[in-house]
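HOLO CASE FILE
Compound: 5-O-phosphono-beta-D-ribofuranosylamine
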Amino acid sequence: MKRIVILISGRGSNMEAVVRACDAQGWPAQVVAVISNRPQASGLDFARSVGLQAEVVDHRAFADRAAFDEALASTVGRYQPDLVVLAGFMRILGEGFVQHYAGRLLNIHPSLLPAFPGLNTHQRALQAGCKIAGATVHFVTAELDHGPVVVQAAVPVLTGDDEASLAARVLQAEHQIYPKAVGWFVQGQLEVRQGVVRHTAGEPQHLWFG
Ligand code: GRF
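Model generated. Tokens follow.
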């Protein structure tokens, strides 16, 4: 059984999608904890409602980034995860944490990386006049929103879209690709060579929601 820890900061809809898929699809895996850096994260309610271990490591309780990182690492470490899933986790992780979990740390980002790393991705995609937007699941490396791409989903940008409508369309795609990527990982179906991720049985690593 692979042990999964999910880190959230808010709503946790991607966490919920992963938890539900893990139950429904009978992966050889178990979500052993959901950890939030924000006590008010509503995703914690869902986690608790389905009987998951839910914890808070409040970043505001620590003097600096290093102290928070240490506390987070020790809380995550107690669960001995095989995989750490960042699902709308809005803190930049320290290099030590990233290195410790290298190759078993996934993130989802609401753009077609390497386009638009960082914040306000939908607004920036709209301002740039993009006709296609999307989301990316990738292994986390020290550089923010970089790292080997596991799967990407593309959606159209429609006339009249605003940030909210585009974000909602992308979020639906996120809920498809994140469980897919986590399922592949826990079933040992991913191979990373020279920064390129390949599904060992050749599953398509792209989705189009046109
Ligand atoms: C998602 O769009 C995710 O890609 C981004 O933050 C949002 C989190 O949503 N990093 P949720 O908390 O999973 O509902």
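CASE NOTES: The radius of gyration is 17 Å. Residues 8, 10-14, 43, 87-88, 108-110, 171, 174 surround 5-O-phosphono-beta-D-ribofuranosylamine (CB under 6 Å).
CLOSED: yes
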